[in-house]
């Protein structure tokens, strides 16, 4: 098969990086010596396997394929973590950019649309609801104080009712502290807690 000089040059350019990696002696990096981010995780791309190896896209001296040794049994990189909506969006945009995919806009430059509850929390009416929530929370505390003077089932029921009322009031009073990464539903009493209070009241009515 005949190939032109240009085709040969293209083949050399394409294969050169792989040939360079193939001829390089693999280096071992100690897990404890790797660079870290602010959360204490290794600040490199890593292929988690057995063994761990350095992933693509890192700066020297961390070369793709190098082995990572002395990895602990439960490394922080593999522990379950919670991330906010903004952090998830950051990750998606960053990885899309690494793959050469344009998402059309960056959320840093784009103005986020505020949710209705967040907009309401900034109004005068929203502040009044937060103030009402504070009063409800205080009412729950008063119910708890009354319960401390009771005995038996009445004391237990009043304590459970007080806990529900305090939680409801605390959630509403924190309305002004909401941000786009938090939800009022995270602090409101659950359906199970509401059903528990109903049962307590029904028990007292017998």
Topology:
Layout: H1 5-22, E1 28-30, E2 46-47, E3 52-54, E4 67-69, H2 85-98, H3 116-121, H4 124-148, H5 152-173, H6 191-205
Parallel strand pairs: 1-4
Antiparallel strand pairs: 2-3, 3-4
Kindly describe this structure.
A four-stranded mixed beta sheet has the order 1-4-3-2, with no helix packed on it. The chain folds into three domains: 5-78, no CATH class; 82-111, no CATH class; 116-205, no CATH class. α4 (124-148) packs antiparallel against α5 (152-173). The protein has helices spanning 5-22, 85-98, 116-121, 124-148, 152-173, 191-205, and strands spanning 28-30, 46-47, 52-54, 67-69. The longest helix has 25 residues, at 124-148. It is elongated, with a radius of gyration of 29 Å. It is mainly α. Mean pLDDT is 78; it is low at 106-110. Helix content is 49%, strand content 5%. It starts with a helix and ends with a helix.
